[in-house]
Each structure stands twice: as C-alpha cells, then as structure tokens.
Amino acid sequence: MRFAGSKQAIWWGAAALVLVLVLWFLGNAIMPFLLGMAIAYFLDPVADRLERAGLSRTLAVVLITAIVVLAFAATLVWLVPLLVRQGTQLVETAPHMIQRLQEVVQARFPDLLPSGGFLDMALDKGRETVAGSMGTIVGSVMGSINGVIGFVMVVVIAPVVAFYMLLDWDRMVDRIDALLPRPHLDTLRTLFAQINDSISGFVRGQAVVILILALLYSTGLALAGLPFGIVIGVSAASLSFIPYLGTLLGGVLSIGVALFSFWDEPARILIVAGIFAAGQMLESNYLQPKIIGGHVGLHPVWLMLALAVFGTLFGFVGLLVAVPLGAAVGVIVRHTVARYKESALYTGAQQPSPPPQPTLVEIVPHGTVARRIAQEQRTHDEAVREARVGAQPPEMQGPEPQGPVLPDSRAGFPVPGGRIGGG
C-alpha cells in the first residue's frame, strides 16, 4: 500500500516542529555542534580537492585542521585584541568627536546649526547617550557571549566536531540520501541541490568578498594614518553582504574621524573617501560578479528578515542557522510558486489525466503456441500412462502398443497410431 502524500506532509511537518523545539530549548547547548557542522560544510570542498590531488581523506582533513587552527590562533593573538582596543577607544572618543563636529559647524556655518535649535539639541542628546551607554552595551554583549555560549565550549568542542564531521561528511550525505522518500527522490534531490547552491554560492562567496574588502579597507586606512582604521575597515567589510550599507556606514564613520583628525589636511580626507569609493567600485564591478556570480543567492532583504526573525526567536543560535534555513525556505517558496503556476488553480484549465497503460502483446515466432500446447499434452499423456502402468500388477503389464508414427502437419509433432485428421 502506498503512503499517502498527506501523511508524508504530516510526518515532514512533525519533523520540522521537532527541529524548532530543539532549537528553542537546546539552542545554547547544541550551538558548538552547529558551529562545528557549519565549519565542516564550508571546508568540505577544500577536502574534496585535496583528495582529487592524491591525498587520503584523513590526511586532507588533518592538513586543513592544522591550517585552520593556526589561522584561528593567530587571529585570537593579534587581530582580536587590536579590534577590541581600537573599538573601545573609538567608543570612548565618539562623544568628543560629536562635540568637536558640533562646535566646528556652529563656528563655520552658524545658520546651518543654530545654537539651541533642533539639530543642536539632537546632537547633544546623542552625545550624552553614546557617552553613557556605549561602554555598558559593549560590556554586556561581551559578558552575555561569555556567559551564555561558553567560550571554552566553543573553542574546544566546535573544532573537534568539525574534524569528525569533515572526516565523515561524504558518508553522512550518502546516508541521508538513502533515507529520502523514494517516490519524491528526484524532487528532493533537486531542492537540496538548489539549497546547497544557494548557501555555498552566497556564504562562501560573500566570505571571500568580505575578506578582500577587509584587507583593502584596513590596509588603506592604516596607510592613510586614520585612527581606528583597522576596526572601521573590518566593520565596513563585515556589513558588505548588504549592498551599499557597509560602504555607506564605513565611509561616513571614517570621513567623520578624518574630519576630526585631519581638519587642516583636506588631501588626507579625500584619500579616506577615495578608499571607500574604490572599494565600492571593486565590489560592484568585479568581486560580486566574479566570485558570487550566477549562484542562486539570497536577496539582502530576505537575508535581513531571516537574521531578524531567527535571531529574535533563538538568540545567537538563530543567527547561525538563519542563512541555511533562510536559503531553504527561499528555495521551497520558489519551487512552490513554480508548481502553482503549472497547476489548474493558476491556469484555470483542468490538467489532462495521464494516458492509460498500454496493453502488452507478446510477439513470438509462428508455431510457438502450438509447440507449447503439444508439449503440455505430451507431459499430460506421459503422466496418465505412468499412473495406469503403476496401478496394474507386474504380471499383467505388457509391452506398450506400437504403431506407425506419422507427422502431424498441423501441430508440428509426431502422433503414434497413424494420421489425425483427414486430407
């Protein structure tokens, strides 16, 4: 008996509900495992390429793990303290920058920012808010990350999980494929392939774009002598997955710092503005088309919605699963819309019923049926004769009657006793 489609939908809906409940109740506990799975997913193509180059899977995974651990350790030792230090200094200096900008504008352009006006009061209020709350916000964010997530768990468990999952990734994918419902196997494989293309095309490509832009912005601003240039460049590059947002915020912040620091050096201010203009041109005209290319990506608005929804529902874990789940939902929605446009509900025309199964007719050489009937008749006659002979006493059994054997032209086999039929 076939499993009804409605029952399959119920079971898949129940599985999705279980996933939501697991993320809701066990989100912080399973966060290192989700992070390790994400790391393994992103590094699997590298391991596959090393395998094709001649390395074994184990050796490839060990080599990748060593490189990643060294890079992560270098980041923790050098980059993270630098970003924290510059970020803290930027937060502490922001109120003085706002006050300095306010004084300069009032002195140079009194009509643009009159004393006691709406903009002047808004800047005063913003300066007080930044001075009073930014330090508290940064401290609470860092404290919540260390307290809820468990920094030690993330650092220790996530790499171990990533190592073992990367080692068994191909076998795990094959086992999952073996569990897919057979009636919908082709459809599910197509959907999963599109989801994988969406995630890998966007996330892997965007990670490379962010890395290139972070190097460009940070190096350029540092060479220009801009204070806090590294933290501004990294922050602007990290927001570049939303078109123009990273460039806009980074450009405004860096130009504001440049105005505060290089007020009497307009050439350096123009250099800072030119760095972000060059970065935006490079991203729009080369990085995005060449690296991300024609992959089925995530629309920035859809990505922001997924981050907001899953982050609100599941916290930091929701941010980790927002991109893959958002990609999956997007692919399923597109597939549903395509099926809807093919249905009678959209076209208004009843879909034709499938053609009936044709009647199968076996074509055999001439005389095959007759020979089969004759063979069955001979088998029956022999069985009857053996039964009769076996039923008589041995002394009464005599020789079988003999007669001329003539061919039967109709049936194609010899018949004892003469001709059958006339003519």
Automatic annotation (TrEMBL):
Keywords (A to Z) from UniProt: Ion transport, Membrane, Transmembrane, Transmembrane helix, Transport
Composition bias type Basic and acidic residues, residue spans: 376-388
Signal peptide per UniProt: none
InterPro entries attached to this UniProt entry: AI-2E-like (IPR002549), ATPase_proteolipid_csu (IPR000245)
Gene Ontology MF term list: proton-transporting ATPase activity, rotational mechanism
Record field: transmembrane: 12-43, 55-80, 148-167, 208-235, 241-262, 269-288, 300-333
GO cellular component entries: proton-transporting V-type ATPase, V0 domain
The protein's name: AI-2E family transporter
